[in-house]
Design a protein that fits this description.
The protein is 17% helix and 22% strand. It contains 3 helices and 5 strands, in the order ββαβααββ. Strands 2-1-5-3-4 form a 5-stranded mixed beta sheet. Strand 1 and strand 2 form a beta hairpin. The protein has one domain: Roll (Ubiquitin-like (UB roll)), CATH 3.10.20. The chain starts with a strand and ends in a 6-residue tail after the last strand. 32% of the residues are buried. It is α+β, with helices and mostly antiparallel strands and 106 residues long.
Amino acid sequence: MTKLTIVAFDGTRFDLDAEQGSTVMENAVRNSVPGIDAECGGACACATCHVYVDDAWTGIVGGPEPMEEDMLDFAVDVRPTSRLSCQIKITPALDGLVVHVPERQG
């Protein structure tokens, strides 16, 4: 298991054990993290699982692929660290990953 922390907009921390190959979004939904709507179920067809990758992790997580970038155009308050959580797959390299949920989704 890989350690994953999702910080809700109100500051509540969700410290999770995430399975390899799952996505940040799947773990958020499974653990009822508020603010992750995931309306498309992880198909990269909406922007309702938008998160901010913690600054310390941006280099490891990497940037969005072109299709994800297109979907981020529909997100609210996009920042340089914005990603769709459905597109971040859990790997051993992401052990300890921290992401933050924005105030609202697109």
